[in-house]
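fyi for ur records
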Amino acid sequence: MSENGSTPPPPPPGRNPRMPNGKAEGGWPRWSMWIVLGVILTLVLASIAIPDDTSGQISYSEFIAKVEDGQIAEIELDNNTARITATEDVPEGETPETFRTTAPSEIPEADQLLFREQGVIFTPVTNTGNVLLNLIPLFLPFLLIIGFLYWMAKRQQSQMGGIMSIGRSKAKTYNTERPGTTFADVAGYAGVKKEVTEVVDFLRDPGKFGDVGARIPKGVLLVGPPGTGKTLIARAVAGEAGVPFLSVTGSDFMEMFVGVGASRVRDLFSEARKMGKAIIFIDEIDSIGRKRGAGMGGGHDEREQTLNQMLAEMDGFEATEGIVMMAATNRPDILDPALLRPGRFDRQVVVPLPELEDRKEILGVHIKHKRMADDVDVNVIARGTPGMSGADLANLVNEAALFAVRRESSMVYAQDFDAARDRVLLGIERSSMVRNQADIERTAYHEAGHALCAAIQEGHDPVHKVTIIPTGMALGVTMTLPTEDRYKIEKSEAEARIIMALGGRNAEKLVFGEVTSGASDDLRQATQMARRMVTEWGMSDAIGPMSLSDNQPVFLGEDMMQSKSFSDETAKLIDEETRKILVEMEERCAALLHENRNALDLITRQLLEHETVNGDEVLRLIGLAATGTTAEAESLGAPAPSDFQRDNMPEGGISEQVVADRADS
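which gave:
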């Protein structure tokens, strides 16, 4: 499930004490103080860097000598700086030269008498300057101190405002003025859309429901695995109805202060009531809606207070008030029963993993804005991705595009989707891993055993790919893909899966005479499947039609102090039946591999030659082993066996009918 390629704009700011343009409410912009400091620093540096005019500067003694020689006609004394500016005595018509010097703090009487004797015009001057400029050096420190105190006061006021607003809701508001999401942006899920259409009709015209006396559900709980688009569906409901959409996550209600969660719930519902018609959407509601009083440490007071406030607010809704609550969770089993009773979240809409047709529509949305080659078939990709959610499909398309870029291709081809699917399902190939030839051959027989058991059993999914290249955490991988979506599993299919899981271990045992630790994950899967057959699916004659599984979440701690639902004798019987199934399936697996040893060797040799074999090639090799001798198989392109394989290759093969049936499937 996905919306269109456009990215939704960010939500508008809520009650943030800082406005979006960087200006504090009721104050100057934050950058104004930096400008003032920059101007002051520039002036200081300029006053230091700009040199004084030193042209015509002479010493005081030289100045007196010029006066004695009669070269000075006029002098001007600055009383503030004791600077003397002297003008040279020249004949009329010539330009006099100006000299500058610094006089003593008090000019001696002898020098003053010399000025009078030489007829020098002496003019004392006192420059008062600009009064404001003269006051700046006096008041500048006080101005800086006052500005600093004002900045500290505003900062403290902002922090106090944040503390005072801690109980306000953190919900993001999406209104009709912003680009909205509609059902056209939701690919697939026709049944889910039909379920929530009633909510859209109620929000558009709540009056017709009130006239008839009908009551619309107050709360709609969207339940489904992660990545199925529950949040997108809720936004589409708001977009179709044309009402504001308040989005908040369950963790936004929790804070370190007691009572903050309940306060935020009250503020959220108060804000919704002011809008008249609105949708309140709470994502991951299980973070605050867990069962009260559960857990090893008892209840969580703050979370329970928040839940109690939410329950009270939902009870306060009128039948046609125009406010609908929607929530999403992937753990409905841990929600408090009071939250799910009629009158609150009384309608649950299941958003399952997309089916084949849904996957086609979702893939069509994601590849719409990408350059696809002609060999890319959405139907083929959808059939090969059962069990993937909308988010998984989006990731698959993106990975395919990345593979195309790595190949320096301008378009995305089908081979890129195959590589992307292997990357998502299997992991990264570790082709650089160093292994000796013995380990490689043992791994080849192991994977050939898996592939052979999966290929010749009618109840198992067809083989898609077999490789002995280390992938992810495994030294080799046998990948099978179902041909269609399945919603139940038959006993024969469960047994086939166990045999396939034990195929690698038994192949090693058949060829090399001993087993290794490489089958640890296979044994875990086989044991888990056998135990579920006994405890959940009633496929054991000794246990009978009983469900003995315990699927309660461990972290809730509800059954920590309670006894088991079955006796110790029954537990022993479960272990015996599980072991009985595993032993029986291992015997069938060993017999199957021994009967089809020729096919096992052919698949192994092909893996050693090419490292990767697809499902069609596996069926071809099985057909060669079933219809001809080893020499005929070699003449048709199969690689020659090693001496070890020749010495240990028995006669025989699987029937032609089984090969034909598997090829047709």
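The CA atoms of residues 364 and 378 lie 7 Å apart. thats all i got for now
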